[in-house]
Amino acid sequence: MPLSLILQYLFSGITAGAIYAVIAIGFNIVYNTTGIINFAQGEFVMLGGMIAISLGGFMPLPVAVAGAVAITALVGGLLEFVFIRRMKNPTVIQMIIVTIGLSILIREAALHVWDEKVHSLPYFTGNEISSLRIFGACLSPQVLWVLGTCAAVVAGLSLFFTHTAAGRAMRACSADRIGAMLCGINARTMVTLSFMISAAIGALAGCVISPITSTTYDCGTSLAVKGFTVAIIGGLGNSAGAVVAGLLLGIVEAFCISFMPMSYRDVVVIAILLAALSLKPSGLFGSSASHALKEF
Amino acid sequence: MHFRSYFAAAAIAVVALFTAVPVRAAPGAEPVKIGAILAVSGPASFLGSPEANTVVMLVKRINDKGGINGHKVILLLKDSKSDPQIALSLARQIIEEEQVFAIIGPSTSGETLKIKQLCNDAKTILISCASAEGITNPVAPYVFTTAQKDALAVRKIYETMKALNLHRIAIASSNTGFGKAGKTQLENLAPEFGIEIAADEVYEKEATDLSGLLTKIKAANVQAVVNWSIEPAQALLAKNMRQIGLTVPLFQSHGFANILYAKVAGAAAEGILFPSGRLVVAGVLPKDNPQKKVLMEYKKEYETDYKEDASTFGGHVWDALMLLTRAIEAAPDLDREKVRSALENIRGCVGIGGIFNLSATDHSGLDESAFSMLTVKGGKFIPYSGK
Q1: In terms of Cα–Cα distance, which of B205, B203, B200, B193 is closest to B231?
Q2: How big is chain A by its Cα radius of gyration, in Å?
Q3: B284 Cα to chain A: minimum distance (Å)
Q4: How many CB atoms lie within 10 A of CB A162?
Q5: Which domain holds residue B128?
Q6: Same domain, B97 and B238
Q7: Does the predicted TM-score (pTM) go above 0.90?
Q8: ipTM > 0.90?
């Protein structure tokens, strides 16, 4: 295989992988504070994209994206406040069912608020056909935006969780909820905050990937499935792990396509997921000691 | 005593039955129930949404004019969510519970093939809006379609390729009924046109990135790419293709004939070639084109009512309802079998998709002339005029 072709497969893997990664990060925040997987995460991604597209009609793109992130964060907080806060001592399975219910609710609401048509944001740099040529292989500049967003979000989150009072309080809730409450931390507020942050990150992901993948009211589910897979492989709760796992998975997929029909791609992905779950359940980058303490 | 009153009631009923001779064209005749199973939401909503709009608009117009031969039309519009399984249960429901006279739709090939047998067995006329060869071949007496068959689309594409001297091609198709049917036709007809298929790939309909698949196609050194799908993946493929620097011509199926796809693909849509019915270029057709009047009429009505561009797919429903109306008018009375055979005798009916000539062996009624080759220029569909 000539070098330019190998590079092209690599780039297409990075394109797919960056999309998986930026979605996977969103799963981690709610998991970190509550120990559950928010199955409505994919719908936050969709909401972000849809709201930005609507706002983009009458304001500049950066403002529209910021607006979409803020509105989605509010929606995320509101949903937590209305539906999840009311449950007394919810079990993991109850929380999962509630979040799946929420995902259906948001999806159907989006169908009524917007429509069933495909929409997409304009490319942040260049347009649909612009690409960077590197050693004979091509890469869309939007992929760099997605990668940059991943890096910025991971860096931002690690600063937030280690250097701010709210971030440390959220980690405390995750480690020992009762202990944290005894220290005067309002655990419920922290859960609301975690939903808001993960909704905001989901919305940001929805905006940066929209030019590449387009946005429809029902695009969240299929995006979330891949994002969830990546979050598990990377080690739940580990944002940097999610990015590395996302890129790895994308690249493995791309090279798989090179020698087998594309229809078998998901077989490979699921095989990797099963292998990861049975060999290293804490994920590639998760710590097995902390995983042992989690309920789920 | 009781026996006597039962007997009397039965006698009255029998007399009523015999005296109730159906009166044709009388206002207040029994209404005709027509079901429409369309993919209003889900991945094929591009088809189902304009189709649903069209059927609602047209039924209202028919009823305002007093119905078909005095029979008011009762429309039962159902959303299949683009899912063959849902289409099947909806079809079962409206056939068994509502006992509809005929069904219009479904929008997609997968859904139609799923309910073909059911409708035929239940002797309920089905006029599909989907294009797979399997819908009308083998012929099922009660199953018709108004969408141009995919074999015709493939022939049109291959003819264009021959004219452009393109011999080595790659096929990409989605894993749906439509994608599979198109892929089969592309593979079957290739030898006839001397075309070599160097890569043949299937992707899932929810795909979010196809650059890996396109890299493989790029490595196969082809002269053209044909994509067969109806989902947003049509736009995705076009974008990914230009982004990885694959510059050979891209042919799409007749499923591309919705300007929204071209809008979503933006600059990447420029130069895409696809076969289509004439609705999308109705405005620039010469005056003497036999379809021009019908096309402009539909376009104007749809665009006034819904404030969006009319699409070919809505046209399939328009054709379906028009054919059914004609058949009911031509049939001696409102009987499924009689209307069915009236449908088979429709000749020279000018519709949106083409000019219909149905027969007992041809339940689609359109030939290659229904298609013309279009291309995208400046974000608009225009007739393709060769190199």
Answers
A1: B205
A2: 19
A3: 27
A4: 10
A5: 29-148+292-356
A6: no
A7: no
A8: no
